[in-house]
Amino acid sequence: MLDVERGRLEHIIDEHEREREESVIAEGSADRNADPDNVDGGAINVEIGIDQATVQNARDLLARVLHAQDRMEKGLYGTCEVTGEPIPVARLEALPYATTTVAAASQL
Fold it and tell me: At how many degrees (to 10) do helices 39-73 and 2-27 cross?
């Protein structure tokens, strides 16, 4: 489960970075810094912001996946970091990178 999620997130990050590089090359870096008062420039800035947010979210999730994999290697996967209680299988199936129970997560 974690390996699949890790691969998916790495693919998202790589794909967005590749697309961004191609965009900068194709449009020229001057066009990417368009006047925000210009309708086209504003749309470009919104698109860049969305791309950056998507990549940052993927990086954050990837860090959580790597942390969960580290816990797996240490024999701690499936145990809540806060309470030491087992994390329900249904939660791990929904969020393979979960390191806390729902109750513990709501306290954080």
Answer: 150
| pLDDT per position as a tens digit, 88-107 | 999 999 999 999 999 999 99
What the block records as the tokens of 65 is: 């996946």
Assessment of whether the complete model's pTM goes beyond 0.85: no
Would you state the torsion angle of the CA atoms of residues 61, 102, 4, 89, taken in this order, to the nearest 10 degrees? 170
Say how many residues make up the chain: 108
User: Exposed, middle or buried by CB within 10 Å (0-12, 13-18, 19+), for 89?
Assistant: exposed
Tell me what the mean pLDDT of segment 58-70 comes to: 93
